[in-house]
Amino acid sequence: MEHIKENLQEINERIAAAAEKSGRNPSDIKLVAVSKYFPLEAILAAYDCGQFIFGENRVQEMTDKAKVLPEDIRWHMIGHLQSNKVKPAVECAACIHSVDSLRLLKRIDRLAGECGNKPDVLLEFNLSGEDSKFGLKEKSAMKLAEAAAACENVKVSGLMTMAPFEAADDELNVIFGGLRELRDRMSSASGLVLPELSMGMSGDFEIAIGQGATLVRIGTAIFGKRDYQR
Ligand SMILES: *Cc1c(COP(=O)(O)O)cnc(C)c1O
User: Fold this and answer.
1) pLDDT digits (tens, 9 = 90+) for 152-187
2) How many Cα neighbours within 13 Å face the side chain of 223?
3) Residues 6 or more apart from 39 whose CB is under 8 A from it?
4) 91 C-beta neighbours (distance < 10 Å), count
5) How far apart (Å, rounded) are the C-alpha atoms in residues 90 and 86?
6) Cβ of residue 158 lying under 6 Å from some atom of ligand 1
7) Are 90 and 60 in contact (CB under 8 A)?
8) Which atom of ligand 1 is the closest one to the Cα of 34?
9) Does residue 32 have its Cβ closer than 6 Å to ligand 1?
10) What is the pLDDT of residues 50-62, one digit of tens each?
11) Span from the CA of 14 to the centroid of ligand 1 (angstroms)
């Protein structure tokens, strides 16, 4: 597990360097260590180096891990949520990045009122136009902003997006810059404060930071290659 410590240190240095390069404060960028498919020991190795935020994309895996790992870990749900898994996700998560429908937003808000845990919520947009990906369409943004302003229990604190895996740098700049501009338009239209931009993964987080990312979701570059057979 020594490699995790070294990787984490290197990633934190690269985050700080990317922030400084664009005149930002490194402490404004939070690292979500994406631990999906990785075992408890890997998470604990990162935790022992001071990493407190971990991202998972399957509810069952997140809640199983949360049960046995330190209570001060903050779990971020980053994967698509099926409606029958919303309740356990709301009960466990500190933040849900992947809210991709009006229905899901309303359901999360209601369940948060019932269970008492009130995760922060991010609205996931698909700005690359890929059909295969989850995410809201840009044209639904103002409707979602209105619904977000009307939430009674959860705070909608920003937007999230995923870029295509094979995108070139200029396309990444367009997508990540586009999410920032969309956030600005939604804020001024609705009066909502939307400080968080969740964008950037192992291969593209430096570009995302240049475009204003406040949450970067990094797995492979910390933990290594995932074994999806597990
Ligand atoms: C798996 C995953 C990541 C992390 O991807 P890496 O390339 O391993 O850094 C980030 N965001 C989401 C939504 C993911 O599912």
Assistant:
1) 999 999 999 999 988 999 999 999 999 999 999 999
2) 27
3) none
4) 17
5) 6
6) no
7) no
8) 4
9) no
10) 999 999 999 999 9
11) 17
